[in-house]
Here is the input.
Amino acid sequence: MTTGLREARLGRLFVGRLPTDSDLVEGIEQFCAEQGIAAAWVTAVGAVRHLEYAYFDQVARHYIELRSDTHHEMAGFVGNVSPRDGHPMLHAHASFADELGSTVTGHLRAGTTVWVGEVQVQELADISLLREHDERTNLALW
Here is the structure.
C-alpha cells in the first residue's frame, strides 16, 4: 500500500505570542509569508474572544461554517502550513472550551480573534507540499 508519506527535514523553529485582538489564522499565515516558510507544523495554546470554525460534511462535500462569540480556551490545536495559490495556507483543527468546560471542535477559520495566542511554528525543509484541488473530496490537498 502506498501511503503518500514523504520524508522532510526539520528547519527553523519559531515560538512567540500573537498580539491580542489579532486574527489567529491570518497572523500565522502572515508570519510564515514574512519568514519565507513554505511548509511547517504549527501548534498553539491560549484563548480566543471570537471563534470561526467549520465542519466538513463528507456527503455534501462542503464546509458548514460555524462561529461563537463566547470566550474560549484553546484545549488543543494542531495544524500545518503549505502553499495554496502562491501563499502560505494554515490548515488547523482545534478544540476550544468555554467556562463550563463545554467544547467545540473543528476546522479553524480566519476571523478567529486572539485573546492570548502562544504559537510554535516548526519549519519543514527539503519537501514541497503544494495544495491542489482533489476532485474526490472537493478539498485542497497535498
Summary: Residues 10-125 form a domain with the 60s Ribosomal Protein L30; Chain: A; fold (CATH 3.30.1330.80). The beta strands are 9-18, 40-57, 62-68, 72-84, 87-97, 103-108, 113-125, 132-134, 139-141. The longest strand covers residues 40-57.
